[in-house]
Write a structure and sequence with these properties.
Pfam families: Vps54_N
Distance between the termini: 129 Å
Protein name: Vacuolar protein sorting-associated protein 54 N-terminal domain-containing protein
Largest sheet: none
GO molecular function: SNARE binding
GO cellular component, one term: EARP complex
Oligomer: single chain
Shape: rod-shaped
Number of strands: 0
Radius of gyration: 56 Å
Number of helices: 11
Structural class: mainly alpha
Strand content: under 5%
InterPro entries: VPS50 (IPR040047), VPS54_N (IPR019515)
């Protein structure tokens, strides 16, 4: 064991009382044992001398290799430190330049979009002059969406206001074009108007406005027709402004010889309006709003509203 004491072990084996001869005898025995062990150890050392020498040489070789490896590691670490510094600096520079490039490209794209938005009004007027109302409204709505996306630019705030004014002007032109349907119904023209109002989400407003236009068309057509014949009946020196007279009073100005031609022209003019309304109803029957999977109830409600309004308008117009 680790706590073994050989000297104490031998002393504990001595008898009591101890004689000189016993001590001498044990001393001789132990010396013989020591001699035998020493010879055996020396013999083993001699046997392993060549291996020992080889191991010593191998250890020295390993020491030399370790010194060379240590030198290489030291040099490599120095080179890595230099490379790390240079690589990091250049990499950060490359990343910074790349980021600047990306920001510049994003800014360039934004500027191009803003430039396009600035030129939108010219294109809008071209589309409206070509009676491409859906294209004009679609372009306006897209521009407004783009203006919302780029609202962080100061120049866009004024542009957004301008786009809103342009949209209002476009709606006024739509309304004027809608009023022309009352006296001359053109299917292609009316389909474009309907599509434009759909994009605006004002399908119901469209039919309401249209019925008002029909009422105004009837009134204006009747008044202008009778007014033209009343002007023929007026005496040259009569200082009456017929334009300010009521319709009933204007009719009373007609003479007997003018009455029949005036009535014929009036019936023809009103017949054109009735024919236009008939074509309008027929168009809506043939072009019902398609059902939508997302909002079927909304589409059905709008269709029912339009049909009901047009049906009720028949009696009123007649």
């Amino acid at each position: 064991s680790d706590g073994f004491d050989p000297s104490l072990f031998e002393l504990q084996k001595l008898p009591d009382p101890i004689s000189k001869d016993y001590i001498q005898e044990n001393r001789q025995r132990i010396l013989k044992e020591l001699t035998v062990v020493s010879k055996k150890v020396f013999q083993l050392i001699l046997e392993k001398q060549s291996s020992y020498t080889g191991e010593i040489q191998r250890i020295r070789t390993i020491e030399d290799q370790l010194k060379a490896a240590l030198f290489v590691c030291h040099e490599s670490r120095g080179d890595l430190a230099v490379a790390k510094t240079q690589f990091t600096t250049k990499s950060l520079g490359i990343l910074a330049n790349y980021r600047k490039r990306q920001v510049a490209m994003t800014l360039l794209k934004s500027l191009r979009t803003i430039n396009t938005l600035q030129k939108t009004e010219i294109r809008l007027q071209e589309l409206l002059s070509e009676d491409d109302y859906p294209g004009a409204i679609q372009l306006l709505l897209e521009c407004q969406e783009a203006a919302r996306i780029y609202s962080h630019f100061h120049c866009i705030s004024a542009l957004s206001k301008k786009l809103q004014e342009t949209l209002e002007n476009a709606e006024e032109q739509l309304d004027m074009a809608l009023s022309k349907v009352c006296t001359h119904f053109d299917e292609r023209h009316y389909a474009k108007l309907q599509r434009a109002y759909e994009l605006l989400g004002k399908t119901q407003t469209c039919v309401d406005q249209l019925l008002m236009h029909y009422a105004s068309a009837i009134h204006n057509t009747a008044f202008n027709t009778v007014h033209g014949f009343a002007e023929l009946c007026r005496v040259n020196d009569q200082p009456i402004n017929l334009q300010k007279k009521q319709y009933q009073d204007l009719c009373s100005c007609l003479t007997q010889d003018i009455f029949i031609p005036c009535l014929v022209d009036l019936c023809k003019a009103l017949w054109e309006i009735l024919l236009s309304y008939h074509k309008l109803i027929h168009w809506h029957k043939q072009n019902q709003l398609p059902a939508s999977a997302d909002e079927p109830m909304l589409i059905s409600s709008e269709t029912d509203y339009v049909n009901q309004k047009l049906a009720n308008g028949c009696g009123k117009i007649w």
